[in-house]
Amino acid sequence: MSRSDSELELDDIQGIVLSGYGELPQAGFLMLAFGEPGRARDWVGEVAAGIESAAAGRPGGGYRLHLAFTWAGLEHLELSWQALKGFSREFREGIAGSPRRSRLLGDEGDSAPERWQWGGPAGATIHAVLMGYAATPEALDGLLADQRQALAAAGIEVVMALESRSLADGREHFGFRDGISQPKLAGVSASHDPRQLVAPGEFILGYPNARDQLTMRPLVDPIEDPDNLLPEVAEDSDLHDLGRNGSYLVFRQLGQDVHRFWSWLDAATPDRETRLALAARMVGRWPDGEPLVKAPERPAGEGTDNDFGYHHEDADGLKCPLGAHIRRTNPRDMLPPKPGTEDSLAINRRHRLLRRGRPYGPPLADSLAPDDLLAAGNDGGERGLHFLCLNADISRQFEFVQHTWAENANFAGLHADTDPLIGGRGEGRATFTVPGEPVRRRYHDLPRFVQVHGGAYFFVPGLRALRYL
Ligand code: HEM
Question: Could you report the predicted ipTM of this complex, rounded to two decimals?
Fold first, then answer.
């Protein structure tokens, strides 16, 4: 049922799949529990009329609404057996569906699902998320107030309401510019760097995916990991009309301990310059977004360059450490067995994510400059990232990146490191290695800077499917 890239049905794909709505800094997420199925289906039909497609163009100063369902939500709507056929196992099981999945994602200890308190009753059943994006807080309030009225009239409960707000300069709470590197969809986005082009089927169901670009080459598992718990990947999804033009959405509320981050760095380094350099090495970019591969010593002011690989520029990680956050979550051309080749890039394309996350909670300091964040001390406030990403195969994309790359202590020949920003499995025991000549430097006892407070797997249907419900 694959169609070619040029036939991408933009008018049927929900706009959020192809745009992060940078010009709409306010976002609100209403987590919903349906009541009587017939009334809930009628509501879905009504709200679908207000959802813009990817063909709608830029939102300008307006607003956008989007809707996605959990598996429990789709089941609750009492759809036909055919409509529900073919959804992937991990989607049906849910992000916190089994101890095995939680272990795989590193959701243990304080990040374990039993402890999730992400703005509503712990363990509440979520059937859907209604996502609102607007230019101002007032516009978002107005949009969501109208939606709440319609929801109440349809007997649908808002089990929790979450808000995100883009921070100045596109920074996240640790003070780094985020959302720079995104895959570009072949046939849709222009990219002068072919390394960033990915088949639309990696994100939208029913189109050619990266495997189709690999026809002549066997797929080799990028990282040999004896502890690989990943479930079987169902490659040929049997999804029918409900799946067409849809995408899976991973939603994770990630609390960031900004004070812990900068005070640990302060204690680990002798001076301000080294502190900033170590923080940049953990991320793989300087706070202003410049990649270390391009400017290893200090930011050269070139900004948010994304046109680089690792193998030819920095195979040993002397510029950007092998275990840096961006090197783990998108290793680009450094994957075995043939790093630096098109094969390596082709394997990497199988594990890309379209990120749509935004920060939540007030910033720790008025300015997000590292010195100011360190000086601000600890206010005990709740803040972090609503990490959202879209993918066509949660197991092969999000779960793989989280488990086999971010949480893997042996990633790229390392021994006891996990992702210095989001790794959790090594709570208090993880190290961070900065390769160097003549000797490398290892930082010990990295605390966990990011805790998982909640999350769910959703499905973002195409607009025709929404109307059909
Ligand atoms: C890139 C921060 C969670 C995947 C980045 C960048 C920053 C950042 C500062 C560099 C900017 C950019 O390249 O766009 C954070 C923070 C997180 C977090 C503070 C948690 C609070 C995650 C998670 C994943 C992830 C959970 C996936 C499992 C990525 C990817 C990139 C990235 C794929 C782009 C890498 C590239 O293409 O070079 N992140 N991130 N991040 N992050 Fe995260």
Answer: 1.00
